[in-house]
Amino acid sequence: MIFEEHASLQRKLQILSDAAKYDVACTSSGVSRPGRKGELGNTEASGICHSFSGDGRCISLLKILFTNECIYNCKYCINRVTNDLPRATFTPEEICELTMEFYRRNYIEGLFLSSGIIQSPDYTMELIGKTLHDLRTIHRFNGYIHCKAIPGASPELVEMVGWYADRMSVNLELPTTQGLKNLAPNKSRKSILTPMRQIQSGMEESRKLLGMKGGNRSAYWHTSKRLGRILPGTEALSGSTPASLEQREQKKDMVSEKKEEEELQLPGKAQAGGLTQWNRRDTSRGFVPAGQSTQMIIGASGETDYEIMAVSEALYQRFDLKRVFYSGFINVNQDASLQALEGKPAKLREHRLYQADWLLRYYGFAAEELLSKKRPNFNVFLDPKCDWALGHMEQFPVEINRADYNMLLRVPGIGVKSAQRICAARQTGPLDFPHLKKMGVVLKRAIYFITCNGRLMYDFLKMDEDYITRSILGEDQAVLKNFGQQDIQYRQLSLFDDWKRAEG
Description:
With 504 residues, this protein is an alpha/beta fold. It has three domains: 1-169, no CATH class; 171-267 and 288-333 and 345-378, no CATH class; 384-484, no CATH class. The protein is built from 19 helices and twelve strands. It has helices at 9-19, 92-104, 121-138, 155-164, 177-183, 189-210, 219-227, 243-264, 305-319, 347-362, 367-370, 384-390, 405-408, 416-425, 433-439, 443-446, 465-474, 477-484, 497-503, and strands at 2-3, 51-52, 58-59, 61-65, 86-87, 110-114, 144-148, 167-169, 292-298, 323-328, 398-399, 450-451. Strands 4-6-7-8-9-10 form a six-stranded parallel beta sheet. Strands 1-5 form a two-stranded parallel ribbon. It has a two-stranded antiparallel ribbon with strand order 2-3. The radius of gyration is 24 Å and the shape is globular.
């Protein structure tokens, strides 16, 4: 390893921002906090990495590692201990200086801080905690902070960081226990899930103590509540639920509970009173108010899409996660023990997983509806929702003027906003296809699956799976053409890429 002990701040920034590009952080902040007198910055709930807020500002995060030194030897990680590459470590004061100066110049909206593990998990987490403490208390930074929790760190340090961060995440790394054992032998599923459970329990207690400052519920939780589903380990959700449906859900949970616990090695529910420091901290922000997320590497250890989505669904159900991020595997170490890439980038598979993830969180789908052991992977040519609809033609066409909200969400081309607009508009009168077009419904997909006043949009349309598939794929020739190209290259940008192009 090449230790750059006397590197300048710019050199450290160059090394540690580049090393952080494999951590996925493009997510909405999920928390609103106005500016305060005597403090710098605020937080908008709609703020998102590399996107635009309601007032037109481009929002981004300063995404860096505290250090790229690491005592672990994960085979997929560029920063593993056996790699010979430049190493650098920030001090808490340097990160504070960078964050404050970048924020004053309107370069960033907040901070994303991850880290390798230097000396020990506790030592690393303590340094991260000091950094966040100084930002909040000394520099009076009131902006958004997303921080990674270090697996294996003590609960006291994890809790301390949770009082200063808006969002926390613990990387699950790999979908299965066996994959983690093979590729990251220094990590265990228990060391990853223990802080995840602690953060979840802390948010629940914070909600009771401080109201909604204690972490907003996830979209999956709200969707489950709307559908009357009972999440494992929780009490019955409010609202009327038919007894037969409730019994079926309970039976389903009992059957799958043992399998999921074996897969995830879930630790027991944290005891009440987990927030031991709440009366000694600034509770104006709450404990991890923007919730927690996690990240999985896809394609490094051979799991199927069905296994990945089953694990994601279990995480949403049991840990109330805001997001599960999927990072397509890139063999940066050229390790022979890792899965060989077949030339095609994993980005299309990653895209399908994200689409399916939205179906779980917002549309009420279950993982077993989208895939099964007999059909374990997504169709790369069709999005998961359209693929599901083609496999369940007995439920279509759907009459727009009579279908309930949940069924509308299952129609390809109709999203959450469109379904809400349809339900609101048809209270004033019957709808037809021109009305749907004005509402923003994607009719090039929806016309095959809906009727208005008992009629299809065109008389020549056929309710036939093969006909609809050919028609939809025929409209996406550009996608199919690009999918077949072998020379497409994908890469993640770093903070200094524009500088390199300018110098070149």
